[in-house]
Amino acid sequence: MLNGLLDLNGWQLLLVTLGLTHITIVTVTVFLHRAQAHRALDLHPVLSHFFRFWTWVSTGMVVSEWVGIHRKHHARCETEEDPHSPQILGLKKVLWEGAELYQAASKDKALVERYSHGTPNDWLERHVYGRLRWQGVGLMLIVDLLLFGVLGAAVWAVQMVWIPFFAAGVINGVGHYWGYRNFESPDAATNISPWGILIGGEELHNNHHAFPSSAKLSAKWWEFDIGWFYIRLFQLLGLARVRRMAQPPEMVADKTVIDMDTVKAVIAHRMHVLANYAREVVRPVARVELCRDEAHCRRLYRQARKLMLREESRLDARSRARLADLLAKSQTLATVHQYRKRLQDVWDRTAHSQEALLKSLQDWCAQAEQTGIKSLEDFARHLRSYMPAPALT
């Protein structure tokens, strides 16, 4: 019995360990994150309860605590109240002490109560999963020892550190510090990798912060979200129903009038609108205004795009000074920057009446079309064709 009931060799044991940790990753990304925290999909009660059980035995985490901490992270992102922001606490702290930060936040009962509404609260949750959390991971240790023998302790140890390191450390740390960005969300979230496999798709963290309630985390055709693959599989089996998914706006070629559908599309798809503005307006204008040669162009374009598209609240004093100096060199570039801010004001003024929002967008387009900046004029005309994406059925 030294090798356990399964008597696996080294390679087999490695594959089984990776398989077990992958189930845990799927549990976190599909159940805890997308289904529970953001209500992006509904899961069949049988599948949902399997994920609850697996959360208990493989992590010892409580659903309400995880959901509450994550929702507060979104509500207070990159502020002193964010439970785990590397922009505030430093990358080293979040990367290597992410589990400790989670434990500290989980003890804040007011936080959990405020942000965990809608999570399971039945007898099992109150008396087993929520109360006997260490008994759950202890049960997993016993099963691992029985199946894999003495090396089962190593399998169990890997299972126990997988989520604290990759989810609490890498995603919460590196995912707000280093990587690429498809969308200028008002935080520091980045996509660590375009291929979300190891951490279930959570590598696409900028996409998630741009569209928190989307069940699908990939946004570009070349990005892969394995969590979405499992959701689609569960759909085919009748075990899941997607409620919300980020979609680009519809384009109606013969639509030339700015109406309330245009306003709704601009507000609902504002992250796509900003991304299109960067690609269709900022990029060509910066190239014409700033480039002397190809290498010079690449450097200045990256600088211009970074400074012109980033939320002003995230610019430090040095970056603000560099932006002002950049805009002072080109009135055309300054105009493009001003119109981007004015466009953003449209969705920042959602408390206004529909008539005021419509008038604001109509004025923006009319004035943009009179600037004499071709790419800006083309963008304003193209904006008229925007329609909200159809709702999921």
SSE layout and pairings?
Elements: H1 10-37, E1 41-43, H2 45-58, H3 63-75, H4 86-89, H5 91-106, H6 109-115, H7 123-129, H8 133-148, H9 152-173, E2 195-196, H10 205-210, E3 224-225, H11 226-236, E4 240-242, E5 250-251, H12 260-268, H13 270-290, H14 294-309, H15 317-328, H16 331-348, H17 354-368, H18 374-383, E6 386-387
Parallel strand pairs: 2-3
Antiparallel strand pairs: 1-4, 5-6
Helix pairs in contact: 1-2, 1-3, 1-9, 3-6, 5-9, 8-9, 13-14, 13-16, 16-17, 17-18
Describe the structure in your own words:
This protein is 62% helix and 4% strand. The protein has 393 residues and is mostly helical. The strands form 3 sheets. Strands 1-4 form a two-stranded antiparallel ribbon. The chain has a two-stranded parallel sheet with strand order 2-3. β2 (195-196), α10 and β3 form a beta-alpha-beta unit. α13 runs antiparallel to α14 and α16 runs antiparallel to α17. The radius of gyration is 24 Å and the shape is elongated. The chain starts with 9 loop residues before the first helix and ends in a 6-residue tail after the last strand. The mean pLDDT is 91.
